[in-house]
Amino acid sequence: MTDPHDMPEQHEREHHVVSPKIYLAIVCVLLVLTATTVGASYVEMGVFNPIVALGIAVLKMMLVVLFFMHVKYSTKLTKLTVGAGIFTFLILVGMTLADYVTRAWGRW
Amino acid sequence: MWLFLLTEIMFFGGLFTAYLIYRNWYYPAFVEASHQLQIGWGTGNTAVLITSSFTMAMGVWSAEMRKKGALVLSLVLTFILGLVFLGIKTIEYHEKWEKHHVPGLHYSMQSFLNPASDPEVYNEYHDKPLAPDMARHTELYFFLYFAMTGMHALHMIIGIAILGFMIFRAQAGAYTTGHVTFVENFGLYWHFVDIIWIYLFPLLYLISRHQ
Description:
Chain A folds into 2 domains: 1-72; 75-108. By secondary structure, chain A is an all-alpha fold. Chain A has 4 helices and no strands. Chain A has helices at residues 6-14, 20-41, 48-68, 76-101. Helix content of chain B is 78%, strand content 0%. Chain B contains 9 helices and no strands. In chain B, α1 (2-25) packs antiparallel against α8 and α2 (27-34) packs across α8 (138-171). The chains are: A mainly alpha (108), B mainly alpha (211). Chains A and B meet through α1, α2, α3 and α4 of A and α1, α3 and α9 of B.
């Protein structure tokens, strides 16, 4: 922190700069996945309609988190933080839903 | 910044859980109510928001590469795309207002008690009339719809306000001197708001097209 001119080089060393080509590829994949999920919603698949829609949403989220949010190139601490957040989220939602489905479902 | 985003995940997580539980409880009401949303607008908005995430990522890249012109351009494009998203959302909200589908004193169940009275939606889905005690729960769908998309829109409005501030700072050369943390953290926030929409779109618009 002594000389402000030292900062950028340090920053470069710690930081992987993602190239615009990767961003462009990711945004194209995301738009194709959006078209896919809309197309899939027009096909009658019964219980699989929500599963396919949410599966594609998870895939899109992974692409955004890993590339746009740079988690793929981040430190282990960041990866652990993000992983722990998603894990805790799933525990909370999973436990809540487990409580509801094991009660008198459909007889409220 | 990630820790802040984790608290945001939990916040939206509560809304998502409420939606999932009520959707299973009042399934017929939620299916028919979701037929009121127009997939075209939702798809368009998804494309707009994903593109704005791309321009924001390019903004972070420009700041890291110290390209001032490219940074300002990326931020302005993100700003405009954010406004386009809110504009489309306003059109959708206005339609709900006109059809009395905003929860509250003026809420009307007409489209669900007598679906044929709503020809635009009826011609596409041919929904059967709901019994009054089930049709009543369509209001809950719209309550959650407005709570979830409204909270998302509020995040967009805050983001757009910060973008406006950043555009002025970027023009003064603030972020192209090697200090990119602010732009980077704002990028994380913007991508997070994008991810929320990535889930809202299928849950609200897509998964109930077939009964």
